[in-house]
Write a structure and sequence with these properties.
DNA polymerase, domain 1, 13 helices, single chain, mainly alpha, 2 domains, two-stranded antiparallel ribbon, globular, two-stranded antiparallel sheet, hpI Integrase, Chain A
Length: 311
């Protein structure tokens, strides 16, 4: 049985692509994390080739120490980033066990815990102020307003939004399907306002490109494929940051902040948490429960109204 580490990492990545149907971005990230582990082990052990037996608890401990001391873009590598390396290694080990290899038990590897951060979201007045920043008389402004409205209306992740094509979105029924995190399918719903803005935006488009949202800046090349005009996740992040700054909001909002804001808006209006879980596409209800802080006000009202000590 082949126990060469490099070969098995390659086969694991092929498994992610073929059997798990993971995105190319996920595969690229896993390759980066596992390649860095291999480079570390080569440097540590000074061997010409590595086998999976070279991954033990002591090697993982030293690798963790190496990561914690490694410099990132803005100083030390963040805890959450360090966690990605361990998550990738655990997935690799689970795949090896599934294929009858005797290796280090993945359950022995703990993902480093990050400090809990306060949930960033905008209240409805702040959302409206943000949404009103783009200038609708310009084509880029109309596109940007449609993007902001769609993010708040659907709770889409930024990666889900940039992947949308014109054919995906039905502005008549105001609902469409997306394949989200972990390959899970769900239905998302568009508000009337968002549907109207998307319709207005698409009517200004004279091109035949498939992406729902395309770039206007940059050099246009004759014969370039559709994907070269698709807005990227980074472009959407910069776009949101620009309008947050223009609106002078006290929250350093991102596209994900609009997802949080949509969830809190639903819960404040009386939506049940299970429905919000389905709308957001969360696999685990525990993920959705981070939004339950918004029900505190409603719980206080219930207590004031019904507790005998308040009568």
């Amino acid at each position: 049985m082949n126990r060469n580490l490099t070969d098995l990492v390659r086969r694991f990545l092929e498994y992610l692509e073929i059997e798990r149907n993971c995105s190319q971005l996920t595969i690229r990230n896993y390759k980066h994390y596992l390649d860095e582990l291999c480079v570390f082990l080569f440097a540590e052990k000074k061997l010409n080739k590595l086998e999976i037996d070279d991954i033990g608890m002591e090697e993982v401990r030293r690798f963790r120490l190496y990561l914690s001391r490694k410099k990132g873009r803005n100083g030390e590598m963040k805890i959450v980033t360090q966690g990605y390396y361990i998550i990738a290694l655990r997935s690799f080990l689970k795949w090896l066990i599934k294929n009858d290899y005797r290796v280090l038990q993945p359950e022995k590897l703990d993902v480093p815990k990050r400090k809990s951060e306060s949930l960033k979201f905008l209240d409805i007045k702040q959302v409206e102020k943000l949404l009103n920043q783009p200038i609708l008389s310009t084509r880029s402004g109309l596109r940007d307003r449609a993007i902001l409205e769609l993010l708040f209306s659907t709770g889409l992740r930024v990666s889900e939004l940039v992947a949308l094509n014109r054919s995906n979105v039905d502005i008549v029924s105001r609902e469409f399907g997306v394949i989200g995190k972990g390959g899970r399918a769900r239905v998302v719903f568009i508000s009337k306002k968002a549907a109207n803005l998307i319709d207005r935006y698409l009517r200004t488009r004279i091109d035949k490109y498939k992406p729902l949202f395309v770039r206007y800046a940059g050099k246009y090349e004759f014969g370039a494929d559709d994907e070269s005009y698709r807005l990227t996740s980074r472009s959407i992040q910069r776009l949101v940051k620009k309008y947050v700054k223009k609106a002078k909001l006290p929250v350093d909002a991102t596209p994900h902040t609009l997802r949080h804001s949509m969830a809190t808006d639903l819960l404040r209006s009386g939506a049940d948490i299970r429905s919000v879980q389905e709308i957001l596409g969360h696999k685990n209800i525990a993920t959705t429960q981070i939004y339950t802080h918004v029900t505190d006000k409603r719980l206080r009202e219930v207590h004031n109204k019904f507790h005998s000590g308040n009568r």
